[in-house]
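Hi Prof. W.,

I finally got the Glutamine synthetase prediction working! I wasn't sure whether to trim anything, so I left the full sequence exactly as given:
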Amino acid sequence: MAQILAPSTQWQMRITKSSPNASPITSNMWSSILVKQNKKVAPISSTKFRVMAIKSDNSTINRLEGLLNLDVTPFTDKIIAEYIWIGGTGIDVRSKSRTIAKPVEHPSELPKWNYDGSSTGQAPGEDSEVILYPQAIFRDPFRGGNNILVICDSYTPAGEPIPTNKRHRAAEIFSNPKVIAEVPWYGIEQEYTLLQTNVKWPLGWPVGGYPGPQGPYYCSAGADKSFGRDISDAHYKACLYAGINISGTNGEVMPGQWEYQVGPSVGIEAGDHIWASRYILERITEQAGVVLTLDPKPIEGDWNGAGCHTNYSTKSMREDGGFEVIKKAILNLSLRHKDHISAYGEGNERRLTGKHETANINTFSWGVANRGCSIRVGRDTEKNGKGYLEDRRPASNMDPYVVTSLLAETTLLWEPTLEAEALAAQKLALKV
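And this is what came out:
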């Protein structure tokens, strides 16, 4: 992410009524990737993918699409709310739907719900009920109309957050007066990889083989270099429709890999928007018949991994003299390097090797414009004496609630001893 700009006013998570001209994602949107060969299904190739059924004027799928596109608004005030939560692995998204009597503008208007936690690895079978608390709402790009997506977190019937509920602790940190006063901004760069279904090999790669070396694929165009653009573009528009603060997208260094950026976001909003955007991406790849992976190193060898670089700034960092505040934050981050690494995503050791634009997982480092460091500071930040820092350590499968709140805690609430601070400053050549 090139720079952190002012955050949108949407961060309060309120929903406005959808435009009457807006339409949900349907299979019509996939016309550019639909394969037609005399109405016969073409075999899966390394460079193309298809929707699961061929569309024809009188086909069952065409009649089904008509029902999916029904606008029920003239006939009922009821809406469909898709309740979304994080499953037992800490990275899987689950969801189910319920009817709500009328359109809503705020999650407080929605009822709590429950699910079977024994089926998601979050509760024992003999006491399996887990309660969903609605926390943020977004417009539903799949159903359209006044229908919504609802980001929830999970609690026991007694009201205690379950272990996989990382949002609860993040909300506590972001509600601390010291954190609120510093208005923490985040810009998160979510990388992901698209895989061919069945073979689980990157999109655009010969099955069981390899493409040419990295170099031509980053931000590229062309059928021999760019694989999955329709998915990236569909996701981009769907996020804008939903009210997610998505700020850009691009093809990544490894073929079949993409990135999108969310932010600037304030506080807990960053995690809500990333999880909503991940859910939408899962649904789009489901429709396209492509597998999404957030594995930080999906292909071993001389290929880039997938990260989730997190750009971060506070009010003091953005004001005059902010570079000194940034350096103090870097000092604190260096002293808690192991704590951050342990919370920055499973399998991250396969990615943070010191190669492919990463720092070594065991060594903390920082630098100006250096993508091989743990923390990168931009040239403009150095020049202007204020700005933001980029934490390049988080893996693509990190939990954004954990990463964003840990950055705020380490830089705003945690205080090292004077001895540790002096030693770290000397080691990092920091003058604070």
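The mean pLDDT is 88. Does that look reasonable to you?

Thanks,
D.
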